[in-house]
Each structure stands twice: as structure tokens, then as C-alpha cells.
Please model this.
Amino acid sequence: MTAQLIDGNALSKQLRTEVATRAQALKAKGVTPGLAVVLVGDNQASQVYVRNKVKACEDAGLHSVLEKYEATMTEADLLARVEALNNDPSIHGILVQLPLPAHIDAQKVIEAISPAKDVDGFHIASAGALMTGMPGFWPCTPYGCMKMLESINYDLKGKHAVVIGRSNIVGKPMALMLLQKNATVTICHSGTKDLKAMTLQADVIVAAVGKRNVLTADMVKPGAVVLDVGMNRNDEGKLCGDVDFEGVKQVASHITPVPGGVGPMTITMLLVNTLEAAERASK
Ligand code: GUN
Model:
């Protein structure tokens, strides 16, 4: 068997067109959805990420502001900027790019963002809303994974989903989203004794560790759906995920590639959340 690809670029294109249409409708009511992206310091990867986020906003007809600050910016100054953005009616979503310089308490900054504008879904209030099934903002990467499962009409009810990785921004929220759709969920991590024994039972596997070849073909049940959240470089410097794609695609029924899988979906869901924030604010 060769797995069917879940194409994150194609799905993103479709969802971003929907965002653009909804943005037009809001604009007709006098509201332009706006995202503020705050970058502190000169982390190279972060510079690329924020540029892509701002460009995606522009392409979808959203207003976006990129605020760039020196790495020496104080925590107090950053908190003051966040507060100003909380009070800016032209801004519906606020994203402070991580990582922040070591002298700034990232969690403190995230908690300073108004939950109504927390389009990253990193605020404790957003995490609590996800856990309890209340309205809020879902973190973009796992939210994108859920959209990918939806795109293949995958019914999670009663399925066994194994999430590899327990980060606050992917693994944990991913598990809660799968649970909300009535999957039986197992979270595996660096302390898991026999990862293969777990993954071999899985109908759905989400690999979100940040390490190459965490999941190989011998660890996958035939017909399983595999979502690869990893973003790594192989020995030749080529982008690759956490999954041994060439091997696993021979066993899985569906698989996401890297690049062109979960990656573009993360930015797409940021646009969706920003639009949603603007729609809620204009009600
Ligand atoms: N750094 C890497 N990924 C992300 C993300 O999704 N949001 C923010 N704010 N920072 C990041």
C-alpha cells in the first residue's frame, strides 16, 4: 500500500480563500481584521516565520502590523506594548513570536495578552477553554492537524490516537482536541517505556517531537493515519519531519509530507483565528 498524501498546501489554499471571503464580508461592515506580530531580537528562524505570517495576512486581505524590537528590549517595555495592542481597536489578534530573549519571562508576556486577542492560543485562559470545551482560541498547529483529519472525513469516534510529544503548544492541546472528538488518546513522551508498542496500536499517530525518524515503518499499524508535525534538517540539510516518510508511506493509509503538510496549516489557522477574533469583536 502507498499512503495517500494529505496536502497541506492545497488545503491551506482552500481555507485561506474562505478566510479572504469572510474578511471581505467583515470589511463591508467597516471592520478590517487586524493581526499584530511582535518580534523581539534577531533570531533568524523567527524572522522568516514572522515574515511569512505577515505576508499570509496581506494575501488574505487582513490588516497586519509587524513590530520589531531590539534584543535588549526590557520586559516592562514589551508588556507595555502588549497592553497598548490590547487596547487598540484595529488589532484583533496579537502574536508575540517565541522564543523571546532570556531576560524576558515569556509566560508573563503571554498572560498579558488579552484572551480575546490570543490568536496563538497560548494563554492559560485559552488552554482552559480548550480543556473544558468552552469557546476560545485553539493553538494553530494542532488545530491545523484537526482540519487535516477533517479534510479526509476521518471519524475519530472510538479510534485510538497516539500523540508523540507533550509540549504545551502541540502535544497536549492535540491530545485534548482528539479527545473532544471522542478518540481514545495516548500521549507518549521521552519517558515512555515502549513507544513502538503504543504506536502499533494506533489508528492515528501525531508525531510532534522535533527529532528525525521518531516514527519508522515497523512502528505503524497498516492503514493508520500519520500526521507529521516535525520540522528538522537531514544530513544533506533538507527539511524533514519526525517521520521516516519513505518507509511509513508504504504502511499508512494517509500521511502528511514535510514540507507541504502541517507547516502551511499552522499559518492558515492563525489567519482563521484572527478572523474569528475580529468576527467575535464585531458582534
Ligand atoms: N515560535 C515558533 N512557533 C511559534 C508559534 O506558533 N507562535 C509563536 N508566537 N511563536 C512561535
Notes: DSSP finds ten helices and eleven strands in the chain. The chain has two domains: 30-114, 140-262.
